[in-house]
Prior knowledge:
Layout: H1 3-8, E1 12-14, E2 17-22, E3 26-31, H2 42-48, E4 53-58, H3 72-86, E5 91-96, H4 98-109, E6 114-120, H5 140-148, H6 159-169, H7 172-187, E7 201-206, H8 214-223, E8 227-232, H9 239-242, H10 244-257
Parallel strand pairs: 3-4, 3-5, 5-6, 6-7, 7-8
Antiparallel strand pairs: 1-2, 2-4
Amino acid sequence: MDELRLMRYSLKKEKDYSYIEVGEGTPIIVLHGLMGGLSNFEAVKSFFSVNGYKVIIPELPIYSMSLLKTNVKTFANYLHDFIEFKGFDEVILLGNSLGGHIGLYHTKLYPEKVKGLVITGSSGLYESAMGGGYTKRSDYEVMKKKAQEVFYDPEVATKEIVDEVYATVNDRNKLVKTVAIAKSAIRHNMASDLPNMNIPTCIIWGKNDNVTPPEVAEEFQKLLPDADLFWIDKCGHAAMMEHPDEFNRILHEWLIKREL
């Protein structure tokens, strides 16, 4: 993400961490995906920061770790270190795509730190699309189509989003790490771990998600002991971007019901 966009979201920089922090109350830590910018959660940030929550969106070190450390477990431990640094006793984790997987893996390692978990379009069970399809990465139109396929409505993939995806996959260092993360996601499959994770979990899923199809959400609900599944119609892989108001309403009602 370029510096201008970062400045627009008033990024705090402390120690090894860069993050957005808004509001007061129970901390909701938002975990972005592989090519998802912090701005993807603008509606979540705006809504929950004025409804009794402190919203924190850290920049995950997806492309800044050494290749050997570019994996789900390292990112989960990075998140734990960040939570310790901030001095939070308990947090709600909200993750999209790879961010959901990092949230799940963190919850496996440090369940005592997690009050509630929210996943949308999460990896962790099914990783078909994360590391493939970059053979024609120099073709802007091909990458534009790939970015549009993430959403039900292709118009959600603005030029800014397409430009960022195109720049990422055409940066050799980032491409190598993207492939490493995809392999790591497959290695860190959560199927055998989920039945042991007794954390209240809210699963919000797009009915038209092509990246992690609806049956993935159903599998998450089946394997997690304490999970509620909510669908958003005419919605792809990033529900919080494509249907922000509905996403916020579902999540807010769930948090109230679960007294989180």
